[in-house]
Design brief:
Elements: H1 2-16, E1 21-25, H2 26-35, E2 43-46, H3 59-67, E3 70-73, H4 85-88, E4 94-97, H5 98-102, H6 115-132, H7 137-161, E5 169-172, H8 177-183, E6 189-191, H9 200-213, E7 218-221, H10 228-237, E8 240-243, H11 256-269
Parallel strand pairs: 1-2, 1-3, 3-4, 5-6, 5-7, 7-8
């Protein structure tokens, strides 16, 4: 009798178990965790501060991927090694690559700095989770709507604050493009160095010409330290180097995804 009860309990637990979800980077883990709130916590492959462009899979990562029901990543060209996922993942694992799903053609994977792309990503991830786990469908939908509403409110409030304001900044690598498009802002120049393609001396000459004609107040980066080229330009043009990830925000009650948006927003406000 006890054996039968135990088997029934195990069967019930298996039926109600949430899908095992693996995400590539911290911003995606935060986004997915908000949608899975109260159900389960997604696992993470690339921990901060490891660069997505200089990452290599370890055996522990391979085990996570082999056991996953759903793997979510930005794009095969954004996270190093993720172009190998089709040969790594078992047939039972659902792959979810966001850049093709979002229809992004320019290769910029910093979608967590775009309210517009975040809203679309929430719907894509929530739909995948509901298909894998219909039992928790109502919870996924509720959490997804809560997060989407928080982002939409932040976007509306922030767009209003940027009326007639024009920050003077350059970016160390192209990570502000999506934010600029959403907020109708524009960087004076973008440095392409190290992992990005760049034009060498011609590219440097272009950036310096832009800074000579349109002086900047600061240089934004996600790197620590900033790239050598960024440090050189900052010294030459007396630019304040601001690491967006270290910017303090007042929104401690905001979801982590919204806090990341606010970090970039506050960094740009310091460049007015």
């Amino acid at each position: 009798m006890r054996l039968i009860i135990l088997l029934l309990c195990l069967q019930s637990a298996a039926v109600s178990a949430a899908p095992r979800v693996v995400t590539s980077i911290v911003p995606l883990q935060e986004l997915t965790a908000s949608i899975m709130k109260g159900i389960a916590e997604p696992d993470l492959i690339i921990e901060d501060p490891i660069s997505t462009h200089h990452f290599a899979f370890r055996p522990s990562h391979m085990r996570l991927l082999q056991q996953a029901d759903l793997v979510i990543w930005i794009g095969s060209q954004f996270e190093a090694g993720f172009n190998r996922l089709p040969e790594i993942l078992p047939g039972s694992t659902r792959p979810l690559e966001l850049i093709p799903e979002l229809g992004i053609n320019n290769g910029d994977g910093h979608i967590w700095y775009s309210p517009k792309q975040l809203l679309r990503s929430i719907e894509i991830i929530a739909t995948a989770l509901m298909e894998l786990d219909p039992k928790h469908q109502a919870q996924y939908r509720l959490s997804a709507n809560e997060l989407a509403n928080a982002i939409a409110r932040w976007r509306q409030d922030t767009q209003a604050k940027w009326q007639d304001k024009y920050p003077r900044f350059i970016a160390d690598h192209a990570f502000t493009n999506h934010f600029e498009a959403d907020m109708d802002l524009r960087a004076i120049a973008t440095i392409h160095d190290q992992h990005d393609s760049h034009g060498g001396f011609k590219d440097l000459e272009r950036i310096e010409n832009q800074l000579d004609s349109s002086p900047a107040a600061c240089l934004l980066t996600l790197e620590y330290p900033a790239s050598p080229l960024a440090q050189s330009l900052a010294q030459k043009y007396q630019l304040e180097i601001v690491n967006v990830l270290l910017v303090k925000t007042d929104g401690q009650q905001m979801p982590p995804t919204v806090q990341r948006l606010e970090q970039l927003n506050m960094a740009l406000l310091g460049c007015l």
